[in-house]
Each structure stands twice: as C-alpha cells, then as structure tokens.
Amino acid sequence: MRTKAETLLAQTDRRLLSGREYRGVSRIDGPLVYMRNTHAVGFGELVEILAPDGSRRSGQVLDTSDDAVVVQVFEGTDGLTLPGTGMRFMGEPLTLSVSEQMLGRVMNGLGKSRDGSGTVHGFAERDVNGEPINPTAREYPRDFIQTGISVIDGMTTLIQGQKLPIFSGNGMDHNQLAAQIARQAKVRGSSGDFCIVFAAMGVKYDVARFFIDSFEETGVTDNVALFLSLADDPSIERTITPKTALTLAEYLAFDKGKQVLVIMTDMTNYCESLREIGTMRGEIPSRKGYPGYLYSNLAELYERSGKISGRSGSITQLPILSMPNDDISHPVPDLTGYITEGQIVFERGMQARGIYPPINCLPSLSRLMKDGIGEGMTRGDHPHLANQLFASYSHVKDVQNLASVIGEEELTSLDQQYLEFGNFFEKKFVNQGFDEDRSIEQTLDLGWEALGKLPSEELQRLTDEEIAQYYGK
C-alpha cells in the first residue's frame, strides 16, 4: 500500500529530492513561481530555486496555503521551465550577512557585491524584516543633524532618529540633493560615528554612476554603504532593497553604536513593484491600482528608524519619492505623509527659475523641528527666525498674486519691499551651490540678512532682544 506521500508524488508526477526540496513547478508568471502539494511552508520563508542549467537563485515565499505556494524570485525567472525547476525551502526567513566592512562597498539589492571587489563578508546573520522596536523603549528624537542645506537646516530641520521624506517629481534635482546630503550630513550634539546607508531602487545606470562618482570625488565612499537596484534589474529585487539596507543600518546603529542616515530613492519605484506583483497575483486593487496593504508595507519600512533607550546609535531616514504628475495627493506621497514626521516638497516652478535645491518651504514641514533647535542645540534665535521667515515668505506669495492682477507698479512701497525680500530669500537663502556646505550659523545669519530687506516693524514673530542683536548686522 502506498503512503500518503507516495500518492502525492504520483499525482503530481515529480520527485521529492529531500525533506524540503521539490522538483517541478505548476506555473511561472513573471517573477512569480507557483508550486502545489508541498509541506507546510511559512510566509516569508527563504527559498533556493534550482534552475534547469544548474544555477541557483534566491526567492521568498510571497503567499502560502494548503493548495499552493507562491514564491517571488529575486533574480527573475528567465530560463526556468515547469518540469526542470526545483525549489528548496530553507525553513527560515531571508537573512543578510552584515558587518562594518560593508561600508565603502557597492552592492545589489540583495547585499551581494556589485563593485568587483570580491564577496561581501559579514559576521552576523540578520532577518531582513528586522525586529520591531518596543514603543516604550524608544527615545524621543532631539539631536540636530546638519545637512549643510540652508532651506532644510533653517526651515525644515532634520532631527536624529526622524523620518523626513522628500517629495519630488520626475526630472527634478532630487538625486543631486540626495548625493549632497550624503556627502555633507553630520550630527551635532550627539556622540558616536556617523555613516550613510544609501539605497537606490529602479534607477538608471547613469544615475547610479553619478552617485558612485560623487562619493568617490569627495572622499566619503568609505563611510557609505551603497545598495543599488538598477532599472534593468528584476523589478522584484526593488521590493527587498530597502529591507536589506535597513537591516545593515540596524546592525550599525544598535550593535555598533553609529549614527546612521538612511537615504532611500526612489520609493515610488518600490511601490510600483508592489503594484506589479499584486496585479500578477490577481489581488483586488485599491487606489490607482496599488495593493490595499501599501500603507502597512510602507509603515514597516519607515518605522524601522529611531533611537532605543540605553543604546548610543540611531537610525534617521530620508526617503525620496517622485510624485507622478507632481500630484501630492497621489497614494505614495499621501500615505508616506501619514506615516512620517513631515515632508520636504520640491516645486517645479522654482527649478524652472534656476533655483537649487527647488524646495518650497511653505508646504514643507518638520514636525520634530521644534524639539531639536534653539539654545544649546542650534542657536537661541533659530525658532523665532524660522517662524518669521515662513510668515514673511507666505506674505510674498500673496503680494505676487496681487501683482499679477494690478501690476507691480501699483503696489505699495511695503509690498515692493516684500517682493525684494522674496527675491533675496529664493536667490540667496534657498539657492546654493551643489558643492556648498553651509554651517547652521551661516544659514541663520543669511536668514537675518534676508529679513533686513523688510522694516523692523514687520518682524512680529521675533523678540525685541533678537531684533536688537541681529537685525541689520
């Protein structure tokens, strides 16, 4: 009499190679491989795919049930056949071998060498899904990170342990800004080594080359771990790239005590890959065809930032996403804004006027800024100065709208002064060179120089002492 296992093998016409290894799949659809009649397989389990030519690829269980298992293949399914493909279920989640030696290396989305310098060696195996931080163990972010970018440091200050996304658009200068921040960023008011983990998803080769060359020319390569998933790589690899990058960041921050800044670009490409997989699986789509779990999926990534009580390291995230059609209400920026602590918004009109970085400070904000600036952190006048610059620039927009109706010649002398302030603010305060690294003191002094274009009576957000000390100096 046949055993149950022998009956299953006869029905599926395949051979059980070992306890967790099978030969022959039932369906291949894009980057997904389907296999029926397996043992009980865990969600997210690591899979080794055995190709007909003898090569091996890696994958992860995307869905599992009593009837079938769905595996996403990171290296793509080209060359795989239904009868000739085997699968070995490893019984453990996808892990990344991490070490400090990964700083200075260029890797693909799976953490494998891309720079031709040999195998990337790690000393600890970590689950790429990370371990959730106990909310009661989190420390409130308070330490200022100086990016050297005036409009960020002065108006939307980045705080250590914060997640502050950049909302950009296709063809805008977000790649240049990301490279500049990676070169210039430094922690003030906190101990510990500072390093960068940079993850690029779905970028073109020339963009990837730009990042590498930029880091090499400025001598910061040894302090940057670069994960690159190029546009011609399998799209499925983009879904794992931010996870591997954050896994290394967690090791460097919480095991080695480093202050880690994680820059991820472009999160829209990541979300597009999720939508592609959801469509292949036949899932019921949500807004604009994205899967209904997009919010929770993004939250799993963004919430891996922060500080843990009793540990000296921290993870700060600066995700960059391009808004399709510059629509800030698109699901990707919309959901990102709900999860993160603010946003930095690019304006296409400012880029057209030759302003770099083209950041519009009016829709931008940093919700943790108030706790990381002021006396003992940046400078005592910083909070009031930022409020005054914001209020004055907001009034500039009203004056510009009025001028478009009645003409600049009909404006009052005060309105003319506001236009002069707005022009100086954009051309001198916001605009700066790609290689220009400004200290926070230079930024604040430049802000006071801009306010010098206005009469002191208009500076109602500042104290008399601050005006006496800085105004007109």
Automatic annotation (TrEMBL):
MF (Gene Ontology): ATP binding; proton-transporting ATP synthase activity, rotational mechanism; proton-transporting ATPase activity, rotational mechanism
Region (Disordered): 118-137
CDD domains given in the database record: ATP-synt_V_A-type_beta_C, ATP-synt_V_A-type_beta_N, V_A-ATPase_B
GO biological process, one term: proton motive force-driven plasma membrane ATP synthesis
Superkingdom: Bacteria
UniProt keyword terms in alphabetical order: ATP synthesis, Hydrogen ion transport, Ion transport, Transport
Pfam family name, one: ATP-synt_ab_N
Gene: atpB
Protein name (database record): V-type ATP synthase beta chain
Species the sequence originates in: Sphaerochaeta globosa (strain ATCC BAA-1886 / DSM 22777 / Buddy)
